[in-house]
């Protein structure tokens, strides 16, 4: 039996579960762990500039790879600073483990210096948490934390480590478990056969089927099966914001993102469907619009690994609990015997209708404008990256433009905060992606508002030489807030403008990077080419139309397909 | 509608706060909550009285069941079940008449007097919540209620049905 200190156990156990990168920031309560980290080379520690960014980096790393992101922070403010990052991961079901330092056990509850009840304060936004009380329990706690984080519906797990148990001076027996089993935690992966039969019968009967694919399909790596199913049924496919890339956005059967800023054809297809096959999606309010008017003609098949997501918002006619890959595979096995010779003909009318909606070209925008349109920037980005970049996004108009105008052909390429909508997510997430894939093109699409919420990480980028390309759609305003104010508050722009904006080019340069400002449409293409030809981090400060709105957009309280198509046109 | 939900969970630190958290986070009601270790000391059993229609109860059950510490959950009110609650109540009685009246009602309700003082009785009563409320009413009529404490409901399903790990 190996004897070692609590701090060494933390590092050993992290190696054991396969951690390659640890995003963190030192402080009093975790100095012992940092000392143990110093003595090894297997785990690369990334020193951030703010703990929130550490959580987002681990998150970006996890979204791009499917592996569990790992974070190490000190007690008190170190821990509380991660909360937004943890909540972001929680809402989007991202596997992450946060190791937080804690004051020594004997001082817990005394309001000691840098004390904070991390298990308590994080409780509503974690999948589970551990307060480790004995050094001997460290390996098991870490093993369980990683197991819980990345099985079932993934999510963040906090491991709180009091300083006395990680003390480098003491020695304890180290036993890492061969295998983790928990009698109270056994996620259901395979679907119930009876439910699958029902689901398949309903699909085969359908005249107007549609696949509604969500983030669960990406988590389960189910893209290939989902594509097979869609092709067999010859059904249109729409995707949630979180599901983009699970089914290729350039596939002819793809009708676009659905929901609040979905395409007209996606929302029309959903609304008029007689059979919705929901795969790893959760009928979020940003999808359904008014639930009472939601898809009145459809039988709803809802596949999700989380039983609590099923029939939470919209009642599922055929619920199937299980992971999307396993369940769709079970469906395909049943469908192997079915006769599909007439399938294409059966859905011919349906496709004719969909083509009519498509022909409205709801994503058109003013091409003659001399002011740079944000949509144009995203299209240019798509061309210059050949549609193959990892695109991390912040939150706001630019996020929707990126989701709509950058078709993702592969899963895990679109990295955004969908559920919590966290501004400041983009840059650190793109950094996490770049650490995971040093040779990949990692792009951030952001705006002048969002980028300033974690801009300090430009310093971390310099330290680790991350060649991230930042595409900032600068409209000198909080675009999405301004859009809502235009629509719902008679154009009263209360606090949605930005005064005293920094010179982003100089700022990038001050941090040791390259900055490029683009004022004129004619320069856009060249500047974009220069951005990708320049080694290292490039900050593109692109002056876009301040008055542009994101369309289409669902009309509040309406059905899915009640939409504004432009400032003047409605469905 | 009043529902009784029974939860079997790990007898671990923080488990209770997680369950209570689900109720407050998701806006579910808790009328009463009763929790203690079971015959197997590694497990705790928790009984919650809540209000809600079928949809709400389905969500409560699923969300609570999702917690890592929770092994099993069942709604007792779904089938035949037994429920009991215990109340301790201190009743002041200044007159001889009041003392006699309280004593008589204690017998009628099959309650027990646990502590006797010159000016008050402390009484124990077990039963359904309704019975406890009825007794409380009667006591307020024949004496002065000084204080009372109730345990909250605990219950089991009738017959062979059981909540086991």
TrEMBL record, chain A:
Protein keywords: Amino-acid biosynthesis, Branched-chain amino acid biosynthesis, FAD, Flavoprotein, Magnesium, Metal-binding, Thiamine pyrophosphate, Transferase
InterPro entries: Acetolactate_synth_lsu (IPR012846), AHAS_TPP (IPR039368), DHS-like_NAD/FAD-binding_dom (IPR029035), THDP-binding (IPR029061), Thiamin_PyroP_enz_cen_dom (IPR012000), Thiamin_PyroP_enz_TPP-bd_dom (IPR012001), TPP-bd_CS (IPR000399), TPP_enz (IPR045229)
UniProt domain Thiamine pyrophosphate enzyme N-terminal TPP-binding: residue ranges: 4-119
Domain Thiamine pyrophosphate enzyme TPP-binding intervals: 394-542
GO cellular component: acetolactate synthase complex
Residue ranges constituting the Thiamine pyrophosphate enzyme central domain according to the UniProt record: 196-328
Gene3D superfamilies on file: 3.40.50.970, TPP-binding domain
Cofactor: thiamine diphosphate; Mg(2+)
Catalysis: reaction(s): 2 pyruvate + H(+) = (2S)-2-acetolactate + CO2
Enzyme Commission code: 2.2.1.6
Cofactor binding notes: Binds 1 thiamine pyrophosphate per subunit. Binds 1 Mg(2+) ion per subunit.
GO molecular function (one): magnesium ion binding
GO biological process, alphabetically ordered: isoleucine biosynthetic process; L-valine biosynthetic process
Recorded metabolic or biological pathway in which this protein acts: Amino-acid biosynthesis; L-isoleucine biosynthesis; L-isoleucine from 2-oxobutanoate: step 1/4; Amino-acid biosynthesis; L-valine biosynthesis; L-valine from pyruvate: step 1/4
Family: Belongs to the TPP enzyme family.
Name of the protein this chain belongs to: Acetolactate synthase
From TrEMBL, chain B:
Pfam families: ACT_AHAS_ss (PF22629), ALS_ss_C (PF10369)
Enzymatic reactions: 2 pyruvate + H(+) = (2S)-2-acetolactate + CO2
Record-listed E.C. numbers: 2.2.1.6
Pathway membership, UniProt: Amino-acid biosynthesis; L-valine biosynthesis; L-valine from pyruvate: step 1/4; Amino-acid biosynthesis; L-isoleucine biosynthesis; L-isoleucine from 2-oxobutanoate: step 1/4
CDD domains recorded: ACT_AHAS
GO MF annotation terms: acetolactate synthase activity; acetolactate synthase regulator activity
ACT domain location: 4-78
Gene Ontology annotations of biological process type: isoleucine biosynthetic process; L-valine biosynthetic process
InterPro entries on file: Acetalactate_synth_ssu (IPR004789), Acetolactate_synth/TF_NikR_C (IPR027271), Acetolactate_synth_ssu_C (IPR019455), ACT-like_dom_sf (IPR045865), ACT_dom (IPR002912), AHAS_ACT (IPR039557), AHAS_small-like_ACT (IPR054480)
Entry keywords, A to Z: Amino-acid biosynthesis, Branched-chain amino acid biosynthesis, Transferase
CC per GO annotation: cytosol
Physiological role: Catalyzes the conversion of 2 pyruvate molecules into acetolactate in the first common step of the biosynthetic pathway of the branched-amino acids such as leucine, isoleucine, and valine.
Protein family: Belongs to the acetolactate synthase small subunit family.
Entries under PANTHER family matching the protein: ACETOLACTATE SYNTHASE SMALL SUBUNIT, ACETOLACTATE SYNTHASE SMALL SUBUNIT 1, CHLOROPLASTIC
Subunit structure: Dimer of large and small chains.
Name this polypeptide is given: Acetolactate synthase small subunit
Lineage: Bacteria, Pseudomonadati, Pseudomonadota, Gammaproteobacteria, Alteromonadales
């Amino acid at each position: 039996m190996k004897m070692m200190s609590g701090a060494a156990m933390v590092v050993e156990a992290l190696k054991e579960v396969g951690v390659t990168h640890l995003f963190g920031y030192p402080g009093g309560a975790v100095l012992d762990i940092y000392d143990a980290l110093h003595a090894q080379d297997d785990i690369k520690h990334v020193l951030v500039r703010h703990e929130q960014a550490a959580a987002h980096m681990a998150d970006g790393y996890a979204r791009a790879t499917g592996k569990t992101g790992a974070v190490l922070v000190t007690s008190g403010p170190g821990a509380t600073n991660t909360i937004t990052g943890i909540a972001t991961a929680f809402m989007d079901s991202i596997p992450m483990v946060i190791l937080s330092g804690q004051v020594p056990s004997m001082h817990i509850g005394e309001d000691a210096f840098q004390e904070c009840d991390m298990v308590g304060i994080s409780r509503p936004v974690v999948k589970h948490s551990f307060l480790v009380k004995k050094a001997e329990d460290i390996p098991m706690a870490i093993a369980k934390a990683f197991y819980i984080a990345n099985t079932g519906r993934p999510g963040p797990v906090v491991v709180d480590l009091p300083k006395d148990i990680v003390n480098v001076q003491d020695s304890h027996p180290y036993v890492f478990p061969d295998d983790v089993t928990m009698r109270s935690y056994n996620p259901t992966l395979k679907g119930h056969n009876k439910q699958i039969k029902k689901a398949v019968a309903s699909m085969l009967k359908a005249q107007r089927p549609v696949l509604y694919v969500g983030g669960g399909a990406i988590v389960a790596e189910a893209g290939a099966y989902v594509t097979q199913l869609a092709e067999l049924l010859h059904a249109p496919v729409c995707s949630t914001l979180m599901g983009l890339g699970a089914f290729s956005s350039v596939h002819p059967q793809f009708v676009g993102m659905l929901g609040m800023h979905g395409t007209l054809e996606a929302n029309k297809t959903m609304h008029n469907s007689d059979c919705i096959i929901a795969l790893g999606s959760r009928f979020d309010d940003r999808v359904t619009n008014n639930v009472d008017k939601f898809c009145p003609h459809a039988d709803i098949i809802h596949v999700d690994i989380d039983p609590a997501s099923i029939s939470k918002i919209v009642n599922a006619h055929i619920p199937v609990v299980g992971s999307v890959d396993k369940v769709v595979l079970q469906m395909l096995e049943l469908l192997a015997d079915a006769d599909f010779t007439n399938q294409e003909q059966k859905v011919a009318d349906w496709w004719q209708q969909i083509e009519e909606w498509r022909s409205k070209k709801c994503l058109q925008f003013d091409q003659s404008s001399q002011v740079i349109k944000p949509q144009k920037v995203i299209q240019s980005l798509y061309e210059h990256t050949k549609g193959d970049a990892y695109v991390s996004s912040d939150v706001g108009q630019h996020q929707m433009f990126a989701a709509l105008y950058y078709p993702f052909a592969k899963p895990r390429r679109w990295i955004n905060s969908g559920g919590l909508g966290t501004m400041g997510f983009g840059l650190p997430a793109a950094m996490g992606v770049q650490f995971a894939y040093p040779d990949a093109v990692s792009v951030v699409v952001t705006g002048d508002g969002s980028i300033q919420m974690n801009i300090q990480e430009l310093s971390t980028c310099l330290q680790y030489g991350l060649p991230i390309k930042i595409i900032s759609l600068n409209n000198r305003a909080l675009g999405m807030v301004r859009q809502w104010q235009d629509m719902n508050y008679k154009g009263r722009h209360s606090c949605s403008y930005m005064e005293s904006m920094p010179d982003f080019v100089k700022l990038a340069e001050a941090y040791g990077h390259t900055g490029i400002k683009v004022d004129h449409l004619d320069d856009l293409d060249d500047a974009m080419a220069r951005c990708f030809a320049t080694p290292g981090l490039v900050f593109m400060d692109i002056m876009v139309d301040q008055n542009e709105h994101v369309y289409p957009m669902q009309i509040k309280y309406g059905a899915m397909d009640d939409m504004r198509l432009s400032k003047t046109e409605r469905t | 509608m009043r529902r009784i939900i029974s939860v079997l969970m790990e007898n671990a630190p923080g488990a209770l706060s997680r369950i209570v958290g689900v109720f407050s986070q998701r806006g579910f009601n808790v009328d009463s909550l009763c929790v203690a270790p079971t015959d197997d000391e590694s497990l705790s059993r928790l009984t919650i009285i809540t209000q809600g229609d079928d949809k709400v109860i389905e969500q409560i059950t699923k969300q609570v069941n999702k917690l890592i510490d929770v092994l099993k959950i069942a709604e007792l009110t779904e089938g035949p079940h037994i429920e009991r609650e215990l109340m301790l109540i201190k009743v002041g009685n200044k007159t001889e008449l009041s003392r006699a009246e309280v004593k008589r009602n204690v017998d009628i309700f099959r309650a027990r007097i646990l502590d006797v003082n010159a000016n008050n009785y402390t009484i124990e009563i077990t039963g359904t919540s309704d019975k406890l409320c009825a007794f409380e009413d009667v006591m307020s009529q024949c004496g002065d209620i000084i204080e009372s404490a109730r345990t909250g409901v605990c219950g089991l399903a009738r017959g062979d049905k059981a909540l086991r790990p």
